[in-house]
């Protein structure tokens, strides 16, 4: 009798928290393939982290949404099971799923700003979870929220409790979302690209936090990512997906160092190393863009407190030449994007000067900026938000040239040439942004920026949200375009691996100030600043020996 009891409890302990068995989900009629995912099987055990790895469109997020009972409209599970603690969530009613979400399974989304309610304080949003699932009174709920805020290492929990999402940094918002997911101590935590948009040091902190909380509570974690550095840092097991098919499954060491499949090896070949590329020396020329002692100061007023002065950018100067790429790197809040927006005159600098073709534009009015708008164009981080969803991409691309007086027929013909330049078919001009992948939309955004024939391209985190293979393609594309058109590129990024791949010179920012600058090769091989060394050390997967094709 004792032996049978021991065996039974041992089997229960070994049972996976999540078991996906032959899961098949069909796409709507007319889609580019019949299934979002087909015959997918894997397990996630207590205290283990399983990474779903693959390119955009591989089905990673569809699987996560299905587990949470949040399958997108138009998709249908036509086969298999999704067993959460032995219960098939595909057979659960909406009411049963509402009880499961938060209590048994919780999810951390990629973009915390869209996951959080902008008009509710952070404390109230986390407290709402307790109000739905527990019988705690208001004081008890508040105490629990403050406790979990401390647990996820949020500074000044009382202040954070009363703050709204827009008043916090990206890393702090992500900690709020993690606190919300973990406050009921669910058996399963699903993390859908939770560190993609974060800088390397914040990313390292969040990964360490997830690992520590998972170890303390024995939580099973399903971690979705396209970043191999993150996989090397955090995974126990890896499942590789491609276009809804499971290509490979195994331990982290097996998949990353001895992959069995060609597709996995091709992904590993695209992983960027923190090593400066051997770039040709840029010949000296008259600068396309010159920035002198740029300063941007913000003043926030919260009555009755005294005004708070924040110097987002402090005394930055640089010169950008034809055919040159200058990288601006640093953590979130370092002033990178503020500097880029000042240079593009999307916001007005407090002091300093900006020269384009020898003309000062720092204090120019709207009409005087008209010629400058042709010279300097911007490629933003999220191409979906920067493209009009109600306009086909052809209309988006020709809008700028037509506004500058180019005849519509000529602008359209040039748009067709630009589509070829960014490795896309001209026929795609008739389609809408929603019909393209993330990488394709970014190519379209580059084509739109080039349509005005600029001399300077500002790329603001233009590849940070893309998977490794698409990221590599976009970087090669920018290289090719630069060689052909001799444009100057101001490249804003928090990813040092990307900066080392594409930049001729690098400027490192910290709290709005330049802490180090120089030739990329010298800076990455022998950084002089402690801060730069800290950034390099924080890069996920640094030192891991990924398998490479010979």
Please bin the fraction of helical residues. 25-40%
CATH fold-type name of the largest domain: Rossmann fold
The CATH architecture of the largest domain comes to 3-Layer(aba) Sandwich
Strand content: 15-25%
What is the 3D shape?
globular
Give the beta-strand count: 20
The fourth-level CATH homologous superfamily of the largest domain is P-loop containing nucleotide triphosphate hydrolases
Low-confidence stretches: 1-12
Mean pLDDT: 87
- Secondary-structure-based class equals alpha/beta
| Whole-number count of domains | 3
Provide a descriptive summary of the structure in words.
This protein has a 6-stranded mixed sheet, sandwiched between helices. A 6-stranded mixed sheet has the order 16-17-18-13-19-20, with helices on both faces. Strands 2-1-4-5 form a 4-stranded antiparallel sheet, with helices on one face. With 550 residues, it is an alpha/beta fold. The longest helix is centred in the middle third of the chain and has 18 residues, at 200-217. The chain is globular and about 70 Å long. Helix 6 packs across helix 8 (170-182). It has 3 domains: 14-104 and 189-269, Rossmann fold (3-Layer(aba) Sandwich), CATH 3.40.50.300; 110-185, no CATH class; 289-538, P-loop containing nucleotide triphosphate hydrolases (Rossmann fold).
Brief descriptors of the model:
alpha/beta, single chain, Rossmann fold, disordered N terminus, six-stranded mixed beta sheet, globular, 550 residues
